[in-house]
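User: Hey, quick favor. My workstation is busy. Could you predict this chain's structure for me?
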Amino acid sequence: MAQLEAWIANIDGQIWVQRIMPTTISMNKLRLVVAAISGFLLIGCHSNLCSNEFLKEQSSPDGKWKYISFARNCGATTAENFQISVLPSTTSLPEDAGNVFIGDYNHGAATHAPEIEWIGSNALQIGYSSKARIFRQERHIGPIEIKYLAKP
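Assistant: No problem, here it is.
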């Protein structure tokens, strides 16, 4: 391995030669290490830290669809919430947010959970507190029509 020489002057004005070994890491290796660390950090920041707590499931009258109500917990900064997904009857609840309805209790202002009812094979009615904060309210999922009723 080649050595580099560096000239260093001491206090007495004499010049001394110090032999320096070049670093064994090349710029390409350094770029690769930085890219790998950045990738791990990005994956860590975007990993799914949320979990769904199953509450209730009910099939549509024809058995082709179902709704699932659940609470989603994403850590200390998440308020107590309620979510509803409508899925084909053979599909499991994914680790995602609700695809139909998402709301929370508005810091205790809303006192009751949504009331969910199939009113036909292709129609679902969701009753919820008018004091709740609503973040998602879909009107259709596939062939299923969703109706909402805000209650005092």
